[in-house]
């Protein structure tokens, strides 16, 4: 059985996997000595904590995204609105990662997070009508 919500869920898994690779590369100079500067320092030392924090963020609010998607899948919902909200969530997660890692701009990151928050809440708004009324 194919379901439209699987693709955005897989996209988020891909994002998390990419962040693990990026974090490994950023830590390589400190851990394995690969890519160290001539003075022995890690050229990625400033960005490494932001990558690590962003990776941790992928296991906080997204948990609620996954639960809502799984409940909708289990109920057999094939809603264009649910699909649109799920992809909106993924777009917001990607933007959140770019802002957190690339800029460290907390205000902008908060605005981008609001997109994720609203998209996940939108998915959850679809759940009660399935399980409470039908």
TrEMBL record:
Main location: membrane
One Pfam family in the UniProt entry: MAPEG
InterPro entries reported for this sequence: MAPEG-like_dom_sf (IPR023352), Membr-assoc_MAPEG (IPR001129)
The keyword Membrane is annotated on this UniProt entry: yes
Stretches that traverse the bilayer: 6-26, 110-132
Keywords, ordered alphabetically: Membrane, Transmembrane, Transmembrane helix
Subcellular localization, as worded in the UniProt entry: Membrane
Protein's name according to its UniProt entry: MAPEG family protein
Upper classification of the organism: Bacteria, Pseudomonadati, Pseudomonadota, Gammaproteobacteria, Pseudomonadales
């Amino acid at each position: 059985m194919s379901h439209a919500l699987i693709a955005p869920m897989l996209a988020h898994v891909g994002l998390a996997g990419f962040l693990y690779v990026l974090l490994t590369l950023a830590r390589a100079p400190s851990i394995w000595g690969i890519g160290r500067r001539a003075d022995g320092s890690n050229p990625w030392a400033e960005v490494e904590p932001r990558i690590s924090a962003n990776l941790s963020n992928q296991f906080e609010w997204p948990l609620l995204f996954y639960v809502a998607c799984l409940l909708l899948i289990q109920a057999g919902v094939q809603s264009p609105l649910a699909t649109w909200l799920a992809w909106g969530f993924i777009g917001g997660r990607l933007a959140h990662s770019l802002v957190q890692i690339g800029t460290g701009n907390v205000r902008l990151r908060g605005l981008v997070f609001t997109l994720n928050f609203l998209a996940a809440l939108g998915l959850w708004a679809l759940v009660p009508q399935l399980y409470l009324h039908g």
